[in-house]
């Protein structure tokens, strides 16, 4: 079935958190997490035919970035309108690209294509956040449920597939200056992502020498960022923002004081459940289908308002101000270009303001 948005109220969110779908998602994240404990990005791992086919799909999407250059938008620090053309091209590709995935039945493609299309950002708002990242995870979850990949592929799903997705998303963010989704984005782990910190902390669990405080050592970042997602993300943040993590990423700075990566990793899983799966502004965009079904009550149409300019839906009579409807946050890439007087896609240090 074609997935659709259903969850709009706090009561529905409480139902979701007690549902089998929620439990399956958390179990899947935990399984992927456990598969990369102590594993480097460069380590050899088993890659099935399905893994190779998925990577080819991602390579095709990567080429769409090359085929869709940003338009001249020098007067704005917000999203570049060319992103909408890129998004449309991804949607056009999303259905036919599934034909190359092994063992996939044609009737499953519309459901899968919806999750893949929504993994790259919002066409309306030209932004990106943890909800879109979650759609990519749901796409992988569905592919495993349908037998395209299997449990033995879990390591490769993180170190090959998810990391490839991350590399493409960084290109998309920097090319089109995607805004962080939600006005609270800059106060989180990263303006855009959560899962690379979760999986990345699993990679570092039990490391003989590296400790959470190592993220403040530039030499460590330079040497080990090619092996560990967590350190690569820290290095990326440092490349587009000046000053210390304490000022522009206070949460990451606080986490660096934790004694072990084991505690960081377990905390990341708890935090993901609370800050992503447990937040209405994120989960109201979640797509429920046959593989990830909605198991709670459905509000009648008369109980909800029409979508606002952000694409958000609110229950009638409830306050609309919140994380989902706050003040837009300029892209760090756009801010960098504005400060330096540059044009076109760019990654430059930008003071935190």
Automatic annotation (TrEMBL):
It comes from the Eukaryota. Its main location: cytoplasm. SUPFAM superfamilies: PTPA-like. One of its GO terms (cellular component) is cytoplasm. One of its GO terms (molecular function) is protein tyrosine phosphatase activator activity. Keywords: Cytoplasm, Isomerase, Rotamase. It is found in: Cytoplasm. It catalyses: [protein]-peptidylproline (omega=180) = [protein]-peptidylproline (omega=0). It holds the Pfam family PTPA. Its EC number is 5.2.1.8. InterPro entries: Phstyr_phstse_ac, PTPA_C_lid, PTPA_sf. GO terms for biological process: mitotic spindle organization. PPIases accelerate the folding of proteins. It catalyzes the cis-trans isomerization of proline imidic peptide bonds in oligopeptides. Acts as a regulatory subunit for PP2A-like phosphatases modulating their activity or substrate specificity, probably by inducing a conformational change in the catalytic subunit, a direct target of the PPIase. Can reactivate inactive phosphatase PP2A-phosphatase methylesterase complexes (PP2Ai) in presence of ATP and Mg(2+) by dissociating the inactive form from the complex. PANTHER family: SERINE/THREONINE-PROTEIN PHOSPHATASE 2A REGULATORY SUBUNIT B, SERINE_THREONINE-PROTEIN PHOSPHATASE 2A ACTIVATOR 2. Belongs to the PTPA-type PPIase family. This is Serine/threonine-protein phosphatase 2A activator. It comes from Exidia glandulosa HHB12029.
